[in-house]
Amino acid sequence: MKIVLATRNFGKIREIKEIIDRPGIDWQVFDDQAVWPQVDETGQTFLDNATLKAETLSRFFMLPALADDSGLEVDALGGRPGVQSARFAGESATDAANVAKLLSELEKISKNDDFSRAARFVAAVVFVWPDGRSLSAKGECRGSITRAPSGNNGFGYDPIFIPNGYDKTMAQMSPEEKNKLSHRGRALVELNRQLKL
Q1: Model-level pTM?
Q2: Tens of pLDDT, residues 47-89
Q3: Domains of the chain listed by start with CATH number
Q4: Which one, of 144, 143, 82, 156, lies nearest residue 110 by Cα?
Q5: Does the active-site annotation cover 26?
Q6: Catalytic: which of 32, 48, 68, 69?
């Protein structure tokens, strides 16, 4: 069965393929040169944005589509960057720029007595068939933000996020270790359980 992966983020693509590893799935992955519809992430929640992406790509290609929307919510920043995680430092920001902006924002408020570095990664994944049927799942991973990046694995905010109960960042973990506890890993495991392919 052909399934469109509604992302061009190769870190997400790798994680999805590793977790939903079923015989008979032919993942349709498109690079930056491929023509596909622009999807404006105008939703107020991760689930809204994942649904927009999955529905748009499923209709466009007339194939089932799997989309994810995820991000980091930092308590001390009132839940920011949230759905703006990929664009926190600007529309075309790099992972490094987003991390630098987040650390800078936390540094500005770190003198506050009740300051907390608590945060959580949140992911929503949506699977849509061309006839409009859909399944969705959410996952969360709680932890805290470090003062400086550490580790070379992963992507996004992984170098500054330490999951609760661990003493290393997600970027210091192997992909297998990260997938077992990550927000996206948890959401994908639940979605995989629901799928009857």
Answers
A1: 0.88
A2: 999 999 999 999 999 999 999 999 999 999 999 999 999 999 9
A3: 2-194 (3.90.950.10)
A4: 144
A5: no
A6: 69
